[in-house]
Every structure is written in C-alpha cells, then in structure tokens.
C-alpha cells in the first residue's frame, strides 16, 4: 500500500536513504483507513449486546432453582459466606452458560498489587479414564483457586518459602466471558490473599472498606430517621488516554518500555490553539472508540461519554457510575479492552500520566458518592428539608475526612508517573483541598455563623430539617478544574488520580476515611440527642461544629496560583509535592490505627502497600534511567555525531575549494553541535555512574527511592535536555526517533 514518497528521502554520502522514522510516517499514512467493527449498530441496538457476555443475576435466576438464587442474594446482602452445596449448583449453571457461548477455559481474574489484572487459564476438560473427556466445573473450583503467589509483589508480607496464594470468588461482581480470536474464556472476579490470610491484592481491602462505610452510614442514617438497609459507595471514573499510530510506537523504545517519551523537543504546535478539546473526532479514532464501546457493552461496562481532550492525540471516555467494586473491575477491563482494540486499529493506547512533556498529561477523575438501598444519593442536596438534613450530615463528614486525612489521600495517588502531573499547571496540585462552589459555600458559612444566607431571597438562617435550601446550581465544571476534590452538584470528584492506576486503592482510602468521619458524626449526634431530644437541633449543632473545625480545607479559588500555596501553608495544609514526600503518610501511627479500626488493613498489610508503592517508584525510575542512557548512546549520539562529521567535512572541503569565504556561521553551527555531543556523552556517563551506585548501596526502601528522586531523575533530565536541543539542530533525515510533531498529529 505504501507508495514511494520521494520527498522524504535524504542523501547520505551520495546514497538515497529513507530512515526508519520516515518509513514510520509512511506507514502511519498508509494505515489511516478506519477499521470496521463486527457489530453494526445501524441494524441492531445496544441493548442486544449489552451484558451479553456477563453471567448477570437475571441469567442466574433463570438457570438455577429459585431457592438457590434467593440464598445467593441473601448471602450477598448480609455479607455472609455462601453454602458450598449452593456454589455447586451455581458453578454448574455458570459452566453451561459459558460452554453454550463457546468458552473452553475458565480463570480466576484478580488484581494483584502490580496494579494490573492477573489470570491463569484452565480448561473445563477433566481427566477421563477410558470414557473420553468430560467437562467439569465445581463449586469448589468456582470459590477457590490456588495460584503460585511467589512472583506477585507482596511488599514483604509473604516470605519466599510460603509461595502459595489463594484466590476467592467475589460473588458481588459478576463472571464474564472474554473473547479472543481463537476462543473464549470464562473470567471469575476474585480476591487474592496469602496462605496466612493477608490481602495481596487491591480488591480485598476495597471490599472491606465498602463494608466499613456501609456499617457506619447505615447507623448514621438511622439516627436521622432513615430505614435504609445498606449504603454503598458509587464511583464513575472518567478515563483520559492518548492514541498514537503503531508505526511510531514501534520506533520509540522509550514508549514501548516505559509508557512515556523520555526524549522529545516540545513541538512547534502544542495545545496552545485550543483546537483539540471537544473538537470533531477523526474518523479513524471514532471507529476505534465505537469498537471499544461494542466490546465493553458485551462485558456490561456502561460506557457513556467520549470526546477529544485538551492535548493533541488525547481523549477521554466516561462510564455511567456503579458501585465502587464493580466500577473498579470495569475500569480495569476498560483499560485492557482499550489496549487490545487499539492494536486492531493500528494504534497504541497510552495510559501513562505524562507520555509527552509540553502538553497535558492524563488523569482519572474519580467521581464518588454514597447511595442507600432505597436508591437515594446521600450527597444530593435534594429539595425537601429532610433530604437537606441527610445531605448536610454526609457533606460535613466528607469535608472532615479530607481535612483529617488529606495526606493519606495524597499518598494513595503517589507514583513516578503522577509526579509529572500533580503540581504542574494542568492537573490538580499536590495540596489537597475541597471545592464547594459559591452557593454551597454560602450555605456552609451561614450554618457556621448562624447568620442569614446572603442573597438567598430567604432572609432567614438555615435551619436544618426545617427549612429547605435555596436551589443549588449544578456546578459549572469549568470554574473549578483546578481543585483536587470538587463537589459537583451531587458527588465529589477526586481529580488527582493518575490515568494508569487502579482506582481500587484510592477508593479504599476514600471509603475508610469517610467511614471514620461518618462514625464521628454519628457519635456526636447521639451524644447531642442525649442532652436534647430534638434531632434537628442536634444535627445542626454537630454540623456547625464539624464545619467550623474543618473549614481550613475549603477553597474555591485557583489551585494553580502561588497565592494558594502561601495561603495553604498558613492554614497548615500539607503540600506533599512528590511521591517521596507523600508515601510516608501511609504508615503514620494515626493511619495504621485508622485502617486497623475499620478492619480494612492490618498494620502488616498497610506497610506492605507502602513498600510496594516505594518499590514501584524505584523500579519505574530505574527502567527509565537505563532506557535514557541506552537510547542516548545508541540512537541519539550516533545521529548527532554523523551530522557533526558531515558539517566538519563540508567546512574543510569548502575551505579547500574556495579561499577567502567567511565560514564563521558554519563553524558556529559545528560548535553548537559538537559541544552538545560532548555534553550528552558526559551526562550519560554521569547517569551510568549513578545507576551503578544504586546497585551497590544496600539501603532501606525510602532512602533508595530518595536516591532515585534526588540523584537519578536530575541526571536523566540533564541527558534529555541536551538531547532535545540536538533534536532541533540535527539534520531531520538523520534523526531516529519519531518527533512529537509527528506522533501527536499523524494518526
Ligand atoms: P460532570 O463531570 O460534567 O459533572 P457527569 O455529571 O456526566 O459530568 O459525571 C461524570 C462522571 O460522574 C460520570 O462517570 C458519571 O456517571 C459520574 N457520576 C454521576 N453521578 C454520580 C454519583 N452519584 N456517584 C458517582 N459517580 C457519579
Ligand atoms: Mg467531570
């Protein structure tokens, strides 16, 4: 298909060449034909495929006896263990359903602390004797697996001799079928723990935190007169990502191995024209998006919104919110489906927080709220006095939680990738604060001061449970883009989460810290009720106290401004600028006590997560450092030296051929190139030396990570700075790495 593009050809020693980078552009151009997906929405509707690969409750209800189904639902509602004989019946129904859809294998699908998903497939085929194969799947196999855990990160929990790990069925997240070219696999969402029962994954603590917040929220609701049986947290994660053409990707060893471009001069055109955000979606990209949606619908992932994001080649997808366990599983599935589908379209999907310097990075806005079993959103201000009462109680609890545990919240999203984003003028800053918007702030101020609400038309003070609020406008999201934790009408939006990370851990923390504040509110209201029987007065007093005590966390202004940094410091709010500053927040005595109190993580389990995050940081930076040195040495230096030699020869030849010419400008060019070549080599030597130093020093995790942060990262940056300068000097036809101006625009 690729035609000869003579204009891309350069000459080298008289020979016509097309370098690999230029070939990549030719391939990218040839690949731009949109790829058709298999499902045609013009003849069939979404509802025909939605959930078609999911063993939903409806499917189960139709496939098992009513008593079994009811016992299953009851076990889930009461959070009790399922009777093993029932599991056999369910397993059998699940197997028949999966086989009828062409599945040959099953796997326990889990989320180890790598931040990715893990699976080991087994065939349904069982040993046979003389009778030939039989296909089997028992309740026992459904409920428990025993993978070798020794190669998953444990953060020091599991000693090496104790290799066994256990996966256990999570019946609250439905099993599903993954399709691939040559077959289908039944996937069973599971938790993953060690032989001694320690959680080795992201799901177990999340489930425990869901229980913790349920217990406290039901108790608080009861105090204010509600009879809800359960409360769950709801989450809708907005996911940002980049797409680049595969032919460029394959020419970028840095992106292949580290997920981000470690080199690359800022393109002449970045995002300054503001022409990409919500722009019309290119045909090839739209075909990709529709294809992912089709795959995700089959898996029951309710994706809803798609659009171009701020940076060139950056996009966003958002689902309809679900309970936080399902939302987490679905976000993991979404990332897998996106990566896989991109390849089908000759594209690569990048989830890194900062794949390209100089343009915006990617985040994951974690929209979070609470819903009760009667279908009420507890963070919806509502229209009636009673709804306002519930709202105010849960709002106050959320505000207190972020004020009390802002450092912890910051630590959950700390990673080498997110360090490039937080604090730069594009993402929320590292300082945690809560945005309420003007109107709600007035309500809160009025409750604190006891003075009438200004400009409300109601010249009266807010009386909880008696008067309704004035209408609160839905937040205009443009105004508060800078806030890390913004109230947006009927939910909070935690915006600092990194685009590549699992939302399991941040939501575990959100739920746990909120559980603590909800319990605190309940205790206080209970105590106040003992003194004075009036519920409204009790709630009013407690909300007033809690809002007053935690007022410092409220901030509606521009979070990027330097004034805010000064102001935040005055208020005593922590500014944990990077991973190294933030991670120790995970293991303070206060945080250990918090997780222990709500049975979400034992001290050992918490410390293991701290260790895993530290290790991940070190490993990430180490890989980047090795790549930086190798690409600089084997790709950039040779190209630059070739150019240097060419200018030198040209100058000598010219001097021989013609006398009396002023060649100073050409000598200056040579000097510019030669000086940078020397500097690049020196900087690489320095980086190499540091890498060896890391190998030799035996230190604890934090010192290790500090060394990477304080020594290795600056040395990498020094290499990159010179290399990026060379990119703007060296003959374009010699430059080996696809440039940002190509990767971000040609797709
Ligand atoms: P905006 O960010 O402009 O307010 P939306 O209201 O569409 O946009 O919400 C963005 C995300 O928030 C979506 O994924 C949506 O499902 C989710 N969301 C909406 N309501 C809730 C809720 N009560 N709990 C959790 N997430 C929610
Ligand atoms: Mg939003």
Characterization of the model:
With 747 residues, the chain is α+β, with helices and mostly antiparallel strands. 47% of the residues lie in helices and 13% in strands. The strands form four sheets. Strands 11, 12, 13, 14, 15, 16, 17, 18 and 19 form a nine-stranded mixed sheet that branches. Strands 3, 4, 7, 8, 9 and 10 form a six-stranded mixed sheet that branches. It has a two-stranded antiparallel sheet with strand order 1-2. Helix 10 (283-298) packs across helix 11, helix 20 packs antiparallel against helix 21 (664-696) and helix 21 (664-696) runs antiparallel to helix 22 (701-727). The protein starts with 9 loop residues before the first strand and ends with a helix. Bound molecules: adenosine-5'-diphosphate and magnesium ion. Magnesium ion is lined by residues 238, 365, 477, 493.
